Amino acid sequence: MKKLFYILIACFFLASCDDFDEDINVNPNRPSDATAMQLIGNSQLSLPGLSSSPNGEFLAQYLSETQYVNASLYPVTSTSFYSLYQGPLMNLEYVLTRPELVKEKDGPAANQLAVAKIMKAYYFWHITDRWGDVPFAEALQGTENLTPKYDTQEAIYNAMFALLKEANSQIVAGSISGDIMYNGDMEKWRKLANTLRMLMALRLSEVNAAKAQEEFNQALSAGIMASNADNFIFKHQANADNQNYWYGQIDPNGLGREWWALSQTLVENMKPYNDPRLPVYGNPTRATGEYVGLPSGETKDMDTEKYSLLGNAIWKQDAPVYLVTYAEALFAKAEAAKRGWISGGETEAEANYTMAIRQSMAQWVGNAAAADAFLMEPGIAYTPANGLEQIATQRWVHLFMHGYEAWAEWRRTGYPDNLIAPNGVNVPTRQIYVETEKFNNTENYNEAVQRQFGGDDGLYGKLWWDK
């Protein structure tokens, strides 16, 4: 499977995959092509990387560096999206364009294709919200087009909505095999597709509220997540073959690297309210036994005895990665009610806000009742005058360790409003395109940069929805 995966990547760069069968030696004891579900399963292995990234945690200011501080000072460097195109997206495109790979023994063909569409939309959502306009319609064509044009982010969002609507409508009865995320449960995939569509719609709140409201309500009516049992979670295992990224960074062979502390920003948004999630997110300091955050980008006093390091429960070897959650959907409904997109007004906004916090506690602490006292805290108890800020801030707290998603929501809402500028460097509003695009896809790269940012491919250009 691993060998086949690299052959598929080679097809992307070097040769037409139309001749794939002729270009490899055929072993009569093994299939010459991977099946659709093998390719889907392989693409699922890349999902933790959408969350597990120090860069994402710095952009959302969840963690602070204790060793290599420059990485958290938002250096002006390019960031590559190539691995996402060459890996999971190429696999998914192969599934969607090669019907002969869809095998009946793996479940209904419609369901296999629906899952591929949902995952394609999810990966592209992650990519466009980091970089802005990116190749979409002309991407993933191998040597047939090595210089794809950059689609506008608006066009990409419309295409993602279409993919998710198609996936929802084509799911039929019957499970699929080889699915490491939902074990073939297509009702959970349906709920994920609609939840993603709803969350994507909310992202458009400041640029096209009418379109956002329309897509939001259609997705809601189609059926979204209904409990934490529907959460989209990547489940690691207590072995080196499938372990949590952070375990591999912090405790390789028992070294116990102390490279990351909770940020001062995070602790300031949790400690004053006796948030029960704080002891899960981080450890008390060894110096005082209190929870103390390290200011982002701190370069002078980085004594790890004085600060709360990343919690053991977060970096343990088999710790799960929460990608899309029921609590996140409830926060979205709370905001929609506050904005008047759905009925119920402030009563509905408060009810969903309260339920979102309860489900967040159930997810992180293991007990929804842990929210009882927390919800009574001044500043946490819902007040209409501060409703949008409270919803956005508590969503940010809930999204801990899903840095890229939290960063996107911060850019959209401006909350929490206590993110700092480490060493005077503001939090970026996008990432810079990979350097090689200037030389390998010059015309399309230049057109995209000029269209969006007036020719400046920098960290502070504003994406289409970030108004």
Automatic annotation (TrEMBL):
It comes from Pontibacter oryzae. InterPro entries: SusD-like_2 (IPR041662), TPR-like_helical_dom_sf (IPR011990). This is SusD/RagB family nutrient-binding outer membrane lipoprotein. PROSITE patterns: PROKAR_LIPOPROTEIN. Pfam families: SusD-like_2 (PF12771). Keywords: Lipoprotein. Transmembrane segments: none annotated.
